[in-house]
Amino acid sequence: MYLIHAQFRAPFGSALPADAARRALALAQAGEGVEHVSAHPYAEPHPVLGLFLTASSLREAEGRAAGVCRRLLREHTGMSGWALVRAEVPLLAPLGHGPLGPPESPSTTPGLRRK
């Protein structure tokens, strides 16, 4: 299972339609492996749809997610003027490490190592 983040560029002053995730899921075709879609309308720098899908490779998953999103842009009148920026797996920091997190890894922190 892959989580693909699809980022969208909105026309000035537009908000991600409230039904975008539901519509994307409904537009997914049999065989595309889309299991769930969630919306993150306030993500920065662009609104995001998170698509959970099964595929045999990362490239295939990203391609399928992009296809569903392009279909959404064509068929959802509330997304007229929107553009797909990218559809790819998000890069995540190790657990507990954000952009300002501690430089050491939890697995190498003194006191947590077996002697």
Can you put this structure into words, describing what you see?
The chain has two helices and four strands; from the N terminus they run βαββαβ. The protein is of the alpha+beta class and 115 residues long. A four-stranded antiparallel sheet has the order 2-3-1-4, covered by helices on one side. Strand 2 and strand 3 (48-53) form a beta hairpin. The longest helix is centred in the middle third of the chain and has 18 residues, at 58-75.
Summarize the model shown.
The chain is 23% helix and 23% strand. With 115 residues, it is an alpha+beta fold. The termini are far apart.
Q: Tell me the span between the first and last alpha carbons.
A: 37 Å
Low-pLDDT segments: none
Shape: globular
Largest sheet, strands/sense/barrel: 4 strands, antiparallel
Series of secondary-structure elements, N-terminal to C-terminal: EHEEHE
Question: In percent, how helical is the residue content?
Answer: 10-25%
Q: Hey, roughly how much beta strand do the residues contain?
A: 15-25%
Helices and strands, with pairings:
Blueprint: E1 2-9, H1 20-27, E2 34-40, E3 48-53, H2 58-75, E4 83-88
Antiparallel strand pairs: 1-3, 1-4, 2-3
Helix pairs in contact: 1-2
